[in-house]
Write a structure and sequence with these properties.
286 residues, alpha+beta, 5-stranded antiparallel sheet, 4-stranded antiparallel sheet, 12 helices, 14 strands, 35% helix, globular
Amino acid sequence: MIERYCAPKSLDEALEILRAGEVSPFAGGTDLMPQSQAGRVTLAPVLMNLRRIEGLGGIQETDGVVRIGTLTTMTELMDSALVRERVNILWQACDHFASDQLRNAGTLGGNVCNASPAGDTLVPLLVLDATVELAQKPNGKLETRKLPLAEFLVGPGRTARAPQELLTAIEFLLPPKGHYGAFYKLGTRPALDIAAISIGLGALREKNSLRSVRIAFGAVAPTPVRAARAEAALEGRVLDDKTIDAALKAADAEIHPISDVRATDWYRREMVRNMLRGMLEDARSH
């Protein structure tokens, strides 16, 4: 039962509230509220609204590092020229994120902390080798730590965030000009439904091959996952049919889909093979 509602205006104030006891932080509430109403999440005695905290939003690029504040909304990401022009794979994912109303409320930090295996932004962020920044005040003094997003996501709906910590930002290196990035999401209504599968592909095109290849999948394992063996099968090799077939075979061994109301495991594997092939053929033709 909720005993207290608070809306801190500073990070220090929010971290002191977290340090004091059991707290359910939220920003847009587009994940937390429906989950609590459905009985999948039990709210803590203290409900803390983060939206009034100054300095936790915005998109900045400094010395080649992009920093996105945890309170940045999907709409703000879509409206950003930097994201649209230089981090287009993330822009594509936001374009497939729910409805206009939810994009106006839903935040990047909330989507990351929700840790859904089908989380729309998690796949492109894995492709971008993103890291998360966490803050806490264990002894009354502000402390921060950073860890790769892949280590932050530990299971369905579970992260490495400690109860007294707050996710403050997501960071990644700005992709070089000419970087190829593509995002694909399969759903009955891709912009509204939870993904049955999603795929992210990022690479630098070099003549007839790809380098710095990054591939990630959503909704085919307990967390969104990088496909390291498929990446290795493509790295620096001529992007012909033989190379693509080898990458698809490697990818199939790296995913562990389940059957649920959205798709069977067999169908998910088929769609991963078919859609990844299409994405690689598209990268080859550009």
